[in-house]
Amino acid sequence: MKGKQSDIQELAGFLERKRITNSKIVLAGGCFDIFHIGHLDYLEAARKLGDVLIVGVNSDESITRIKARPPVFQAKARTAVLAALTVVDYVFEFGEDTLSEQLVRLRPHIFAKGSDYRDRWFPEMEAALEIGCEIRIAGEAKISSSSQLRHLLAPERRRQ
């Protein structure tokens, strides 16, 4: 693989080789629209759960469907920011609304969800349980979000 950014097919083959060495694989994911301290906390905590941290990033189209608005930054920029982080081993973009298909394809040992999912059902839960993947909550209590930052930075708020 070239660099940290990869496509799902290439990544699946790479992870098969990592399993041979008994490396514990962790999968995390999200929109990462406006990167903030909460994202960093989540990824650092997820990295501590295993040997290899793979991060799935929602495509621009999936963010538009999920959030009913386009992303602030395009997927190419969001994946580049994540790839620059030392805690992240590999990054891929996915077009679905959830990571369920990628969980089944990549078969990580651990699926890390952010602290905002503590005590909550999430859409990938069934897929994670189906493949025997451990589900872990990573990071401290959520203190900020891209939506909050977007609202604070909105042009109409700056005029006040």
UniProtKB/TrEMBL annotation:
Domain (Cytidyltransferase-like): residue spans on this chain: 27-117
SUPFAM superfamilies given in the database record: Nucleotidylyl transferase (SSF52374)
Key words of the record: Nucleotidyltransferase, Transferase
InterPro entries named in the record: Archaeal_FAD_synthase, Cyt_trans-like, Rossmann-like_a/b/a_fold
Transferase as UniProt keyword: yes
Record-level Gene Ontology MF annotations: nucleotidyltransferase activity
Protein name per UniProt: Adenylyltransferase/cytidyltransferase family protein
Originating organism: Paenibacillus lutrae
